[in-house]
From TrEMBL:
SMART domains: TAFII55_N
Domain TAFII55 protein conserved region: residue ranges: 1-145
Gene Ontology biological process terms in this record: RNA polymerase II preinitiation complex assembly
UniProt family annotation: Belongs to the TAF7 family.
Protein name according to UniProt: OLC1v1007674C2
Organism annotation: Oldenlandia corymbosa var. corymbosa
InterPro entries found in the cross-reference section: TAF7 (IPR037817), TAFII55_prot_cons_reg (IPR006751)
Subcellular compartments: Nucleus
Amino acid sequence: MDEQFILRVPPSVAERIESLLNESASSSDDKSLDLTFTEDGRTGKFVIGNDEFPAYLLDLPGIVESYKTYDDNVLIKTADVGQMIMVKEEGDSIPDEVEYRHGLTPPMRDARRRRFRREPDLNPELVRRVEKDLQNIMAGGTAENIDILPFVMLSFVLI
C-alpha cells in the first residue's frame, strides 16, 4: 500500500508546484519544497522556494478511496484517505474546526449537515436512569417506577 494524502493549495502555489515537477530542477526558481508540522500535528508550514504558507491538517466528512491503474482498464484500490492538508495564503482565515465540512467536490458541500444522521438529543439523567434499571433487571431485580399490570387471558368461543 502506498502512503497517500490530499494536498489542497491556492492556485498560485499549484502553478509553482506544477512548474517544479514539469521542468528540470536547475531551471526552476523554486528549488525546494518542504512541509513541516508543529507538535500538535494539526498546524504547520508549507515552504516552496523562499515563500512560507500556513498549512493545516483537516479531517474530511467521509472516506475517499484512491485507485491506481496500470492498463487504463482495471482499477486497483490503493488507499482510504480521511484527511487533507490545506495550504492557505498568508492573510487567509484560519480554520476553526479540525473537520473540513465541505468535502472535496461540490456535491459534498456542507455534507455533514445535509447527508449524515444527526446525533440524537439525549437527556443525561434519562440515560443514567435507564442504565441503572437495566443493571437491576440483569441482577434479577425489577426496574424502579414501573407498574406491572396483571395479565388476564380471555378466550372467546364463536358458535
